[in-house]
Each structure stands twice: as C-alpha cells, then as structure tokens.
From TrEMBL:
GO terms for biological process: rRNA processing. Its cofactor is Mg(2+). It comes from marine metagenome. Keywords: Hydrolase, Magnesium, Metal-binding, RNA-binding. The keyword Metal-binding applies. Residues 87-139 form the RNA-binding protein AU-1/Ribonuclease E/G domain. GO terms for molecular function: hydrolase activity; metal ion binding; RNA binding; RNA nuclease activity. This is RNA-binding protein AU-1/Ribonuclease E/G domain-containing protein. One of its GO terms (cellular component) is cytoplasm.
Amino acid sequence: VRTVTISGGEGVAFNAESTHAPGLLGNIYMAAEGRRAGAAQFVAIAKGQNAFLDKTGGATPEGNPLVQVTRAEWRGKAPRVSTKIALAGRYIVFFPLTTGASVARRIGDAAVRERLQALAGRIAGDGEGGGITIRSAAEA
C-alpha cells in the first residue's frame, strides 16, 4: 500500500507499507534455551521459531537472555541472533547491555576523532546507562 499526502498541489509526505509478513531482522526477543547441535546453540525466540545463537561475542549465556536477530532466515536456515543488542541511529549506535564509548574508525581526522570521543564519553557518562559508538555520519 502506497500513499502520498498532497498539500497545495505538491506531495509533502510519502508512505509505503508492505503487505508481506514483517521480517525478523533487528527484532529483540527474550530467548528460551533450545537444543545444542554439536558446537552450535539454538534458542527459541517465538512460538515455533528457533534461531541460531551466534557465539562470536563470547560464552553462551544461561537462562533466558535477550537476543537480537542479526541475520534473517535464508534458504531454510534458522535466523541468527546475538546477545549484543544494538539500537542503531543515524549518528549513534546505542548498546544498552554494555558499557563504554567509542568513535567509528572511518573518522580519520585526529582532531575530529578527539572531539567526538570526548562527546561520546560525556554522553555515555559512568556507563550505567549503556555504551555508545559515534558513527561516521556524525563527522560533519
């Protein structure tokens, strides 16, 4: 479904809505322990939906961890999830379950990096509110 809002004879807003089922990518779930298959760990993220827990971020968490879908299901393979939750915005990526502040490596100008690193430190504060990464779009 596509809609356009017209004001004064000109289009001022456009909205497109898919009729297909929404994708899982980026969704956050409280996972239930699932089955192990060799070194792989699967977790249940929804009724009848299992996901592959990506262990590259560290050890497998116990209990019912929060996970975020990092790769959609593809060709019959389960979606991939991670315990490293990331909420990405245009200028900042917020990590609610970690601490620290960093600046994107793509920002090469040392003075700009230093200024943004100081800003990131002030935003992140004492680390109790989560961690952040300032993205390269903030360079301007």
